[in-house]
Write a structure and sequence with these properties.
The chain contains 6 helices and 5 strands; from the N terminus they run ααβαβααβαββ. By secondary structure, the chain is α+β, with helices and mostly antiparallel strands. Helix 2 crosses helix 4. The chain is elongated, with a radius of gyration of 19 Å.
């Protein structure tokens, strides 16, 4: 009986691992699709001129390794974009505004690391929030170009003062 229970636990564990990998693959595909649409760059391309999301199970990495990997990937996915190209994502409720004083890439990394405490602090301080109608209208009226990074399903945007 113990052997049968042990085999069942092993089978259950393998299924959980397979499910986790599938969720990671699905998330990676969502990010790739959205980034390709927004930036015109395919994340999953075999072309040496474009970048690729590594096939790594983040759960096997320690915090510093995950942080470094996520930062490198989000840096590659960050660009300036006209607001007109982002309005569809705003309409879906997927646009998050990041205060100019924060590092946009670090916010994406913390999202990827599921750092709830940090996000609660930023929200409480008013440093990140969903885009509001007034933001969208102002960006539309100004023909704004924003810094953008994708942390699917979220599109993080930041308006910086030009020097």
């Amino acid at each position: 009986q113990q052997t049968a229970d042990s085999r069942q636990q092993t089978a259950d564990s393998r299924q959980q691992t397979a499910d986790s990998r599938q969720q990671t693959a699905d998330s990676r595909q969502q990010t790739a699709d959205l980034t390709e649409h927004l930036l015109g760059v395919s994340l999953l391309s075999d072309s040496p001129n474009q970048f690729d999301v590594p096939d790594i199970d983040l759960e096997t990495l320690d915090y510093n390794e995950r942080y470094a990997l996520l930062k490198a990937e989000f840096l590659k996915q960050t660009a300036k974009m006209p607001w007109a190209d982002l309005q569809t994502y705003y309409a879906r409720g997927n646009v998050i505004v990041v205060a100019p004083k924060l590092d946009l890439v670090d916010v994406a990394v913390q999202l990827g690391l599921d750092n709830t405490a940090q996000f609660e602090a930023w929200i409480k301080a008013g440093e990140i929030a969903p885009a509001q109608d007034s933001d969208a209208q102002a960006w539309h009226d100004d023909g704004a170009t924003l810094w953008v990074t994708v942390a699917a399903p979220w599109v993080l945007v930041q308006q910086r003062e030009e020097a």
